[in-house]
């Protein structure tokens, strides 16, 4: 069906960074087919309607994918295999910032999505990436997971405790290194990507939380950064943890 297209799958594509990346990629060229994966098919359908109204050039489709549900991951991978026969780009974007009452619950929720979910999605789609002539695997991480930034009092930090979230993103960065070692020698370009502090539902759906008290930027900038990576503009930094400005220290 999409043999001539570059097939891109983005998890958590109905909102925030995932939505912005879907839009940037689908607007960039008629050659892209963006599969917008959402855990809620209703939210996915609403997102795809909004994106089509934005005047995109490429093709878009939705797929149900809950990264904490192994049967949902397996069904999505089987569907993409059937429809496209391969995957060129996987953006492992779905993530949460748990505000559960206890640290234990925060850690459990956050790891289930941000680490275990990301690992299982990458594992399930790796065989499809290996069928691509130029595959990319992006794990959407956060500077909040950088040990170097967190432990350096001289560096800018958001000041959030966000303990479980930070630990999950540090673990995700190690997952990226392992994926890069395993898949890199088979031609997959693997990155950990910090999209920057941008407006989204990550911190909550109220205006104050969405904008991080006015500090958060435009997620379209993150979408453009992700587009640049998958178009080869950051290939010099493959295997690294990158943001808009360069390479983030581990
Ligand atoms: N925004 C920032 O300032 C910022 C900064 C650094 C890193 N990040 C990272 O950017 C990524 C995207 O977050 P965002 O800021 O765009 O937040 P967001 O607006 O809350 O979007 C998160 C997306 O992930 C989805 N999701 C959550 N749990 C899922 C699951 N179990 N299975 C599938 N999808 C799931 C959400 O679906 P629902 O809509 O159904 O909840 C939503 O589509 C995350 O990995 C986050 O850690 C964001």
UniProtKB/TrEMBL annotation:
Domain of life where this protein originates: Eukaryota
GO cellular component terms listed in the entry, alphabetical order: cytoplasm
GO molecular function term, any single one: oxidoreductase activity
Pfam families assigned to the protein according to its UniProt record, in alphabetical order: adh_short
A biological process from GO: secondary metabolic process
Family to which this protein belongs: Belongs to the short-chain dehydrogenases/reductases (SDR) family.
PANTHER family per the UniProt record, alphabetical: CHAIN DEHYDROGENASE, PUTATIVE (AFU_ORTHOLOGUE AFUA_5G01530)-RELATED, SHORT-CHAIN DEHYDROGENASE/REDUCTASE
Protein's UniProt name: Short chain dehydrogenase
